[in-house]
Amino acid sequence: MCEIDGQHLTAAAIVGHDGIVWSQSDDFPQLKTEQITAIMNDFSEPGSLAPTGLFLGNTKYMVIQGEPGAVIRGKKGSGGITVKKTNLALIIGIYDEPMAPGQCNMIVERLGDYLLDQGF
Questions:
Q1: What is the CATH number of the domain that holds 44?
Q2: Partners of residue 94 on adjacent β-strands
Q3: Which terminus, N or C, of the chain has the lesser number of Cβ atoms within 10 Å?
């Protein structure tokens, strides 16, 4: 699953803006509708997740730098999350050490850019 420099994402998914999962890894957390809604709101109103954190399944991530309207990044302990928005979907990658945050960002954002180029 999504390898870079010999490292792999812990979990990943492609989810439609409506919260319907298009594809996910076996160990991807069970999403709640309100979590996708909160993520979509942050893309519309950058910074809205910062006070509460980004929740995915039962895990809370502290929101860190991203690209307003395009990418949300979060951190929890030695791991984290990257969410890239395309025209129709959210690309979500979760990582833990030894993968570095930048490696996760690169995987998720490149896939998102590819889907954007394809009209998705």
A1: 3.30.450.30
A2: 11, 81
A3: N
CB environment 28-57: b (16+ within 10 A), e (fewer): bbebeeebbebbeebbeebeebeeebbbbe
Domain span including residue 14 = 10-21+30-77+86-115
Cβ-count burial of 78 within 10 angstroms (0-12 exposed, 13-18 middle, 19+ buried)? Answer: exposed
The length of the chain, given as a count of residues: 120
- Unique residue bearing structure tokens 């699953």: 1
pLDDT of residue 7: 73
Mean pLDDT of the chain: 93
In a domain, residue 42? The reply is yes
pTM: 0.93
Residue 70 located in a structural domain: yes
Structure tokens at 94: 């979760």
